[in-house]
Amino acid sequence: MELWPNGSRPTRPAPAEYFTGTVWQDPICEVPEPGRLRALLVTFAPGARTNWHTHPLGQTLYVTAGCGRFQSWGEPVQTIRAGDVIWIPPGEKHWHGAGPDTMMRHVAMQEVQDGVGADWLEAVSDAQYRGET
Amino acid sequence: MELWPNGSRPTRPAPAEYFTGTVWQDPICEVPEPGRLRALLVTFAPGARTNWHTHPLGQTLYVTAGCGRFQSWGEPVQTIRAGDVIWIPPGEKHWHGAGPDTMMRHVAMQEVQDGVGADWLEAVSDAQYRGET
């Protein structure tokens, strides 16, 4: 077994090219082959969000704190809260993030296919974030 | 996408044949094929623990509350605390649970192989739980 005590791995800023606003990532796991699981704790400051993106084998989000937003392409923006679970099927274009005035934190779990866990697309515009388009 | 709001799925008691003491399970996900991920939130009352068991593709534990115990077969009992992450490789015999006086809650993440996420073995004796053997 391998144990990573709380505090033993640095929090890192999420890559700016795939996120808007202040987003922090804490590693949970990158399971070795033949396992495929990648899990991260992700913390979004108010107004922060991912770019639009898809996952080759889907993604599960488990919201652990706060209140945020989620949208699948062509669907309305939804509110998500601590304790909610969201499943995004393979290939479904979507984004997730904080509320405009509230932080949101989730565990993000996805399986890699050929080493790829996410395919990143364009940023979520302010109008999209506000649900105006 | 599919959204399960907090409170929309019942908490269930863990199966008594595989656990000792009071253990509650909250579902997170059972990802459809070709995905393999199974995730659960598991809450152990003081003294409660899993049986000895193994996982065909390993398991990741992310401790979200409390202070508990973990042991791999032939190794000493270890203390685990909120924020710790534990990786158990495929086939490694182990158990996890609460401390004798403190609850422990973790997210348990494992991938299924041929539909199987865990292979269950004998109960953890009181002497094993206390680290006396």
Task: Walk me through the structure.
Two copies of one chain form a homodimer. By secondary structure, chain A is mostly beta strands. Chain A has a single domain (12-127), classed as Jelly Rolls (Sandwich), CATH 2.60.120. Chain A is built from one helix and 13 strands; from the N terminus they run βββββββββββββα. The longest helix of chain A is centred in the C-terminal third of the chain and has 4 residues, at 126-129. Chain A binds chain B through residues 1-7, 27-29, 31-32, 34-37, 39, 41, 57-58, 60, 62-64, 70, 72, 75, 78, 80-90, 92, 94, 107, 109, 111, and chain B through 1-7, 27-29, 31-32, 34-37, 39, 41, 57-58, 60, 62-64, 70, 72, 75, 78, 80-90, 92, 94, 107, 109, 111.
CATH T-level fold name of chain A: Jelly Rolls
Quaternary status: homodimer
Number of strands of chain A: 13
The helix count of chain A comes to 1
Low-confidence stretches of chain A: none
Radius of gyration of chain A: 14 Å
- Classify the beta-strand content of chain A into a percent band: over 45%
Please estimate the helix content of chain A: under 10%
Provide the CATH top-level class of chain A: Mainly Beta
Largest beta-sheet characterization of chain A = 8 strands, antiparallel
Shape of chain A: globular
Distance between the ends of chain A: 48 Å
Q: Give average pLDDT of chain A, whole number.
A: 98
Succession of helices and strands of chain A: EEEEEEEEEEEEEH
CATH fourth-tier homologous superfamily of chain A: Jelly Rolls
Which pair of chains forms the biggest interface, and how many residues does each contribute?
A: A-B, 44 and 44 residues
In the residues of chain A, how many domains can be counted? 1
The computed structural class of chain A is mainly beta
Under the CATH scheme, which architecture of chain A would be assigned?
Sandwich
